[in-house]
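Notes from hallway chat w/ T.B., transcribed later so I don't forget. T.B. wanted the structure written out for a chain they're using in a teaching module, and asked if we could keep both sequence and structure tokens in one place. Agreed to drop them here.
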Amino acid sequence: MEKDHSMKKCLCVIIALLMSLPAFAKLSPHEEARINAMLTALAQKQDLTFIRNGDAHNCEEAVSHLRLKLSNTRNRIDTAEQFIDKVASSSSISGKPYIVKIPGKSDENAKSYLHALIAETDKTVPDEDK
């Protein structure tokens, strides 16, 4: 009986801790602006093909999918880099990495492509403290 009570108490502590986690991770307006600038730039890459779970998608479809993933995860991440690494670069269902195809270039993992793209678009986002 004592062991059962201790287990319930431990479970309650764990549940309370898990429920509090989203409060610690939330995108700031600056980080959201960084992601939006990157996604806007991605939408303009008309020659890009985004491969997701073996299926090809144009840039508009890719951006639409990534915006949906952002809306579902914005309370669990707190940086644009986390968005790229944990959300935007692989399938949450299969775990397979997304691939970016650009004519005349080698296929590239979406993670490295999106990191390079955000490095470019960060130049257009005002600093957080200004």
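Follow-up for T.B.: The chain has a mean pLDDT of 87. Might be a good example for the class.
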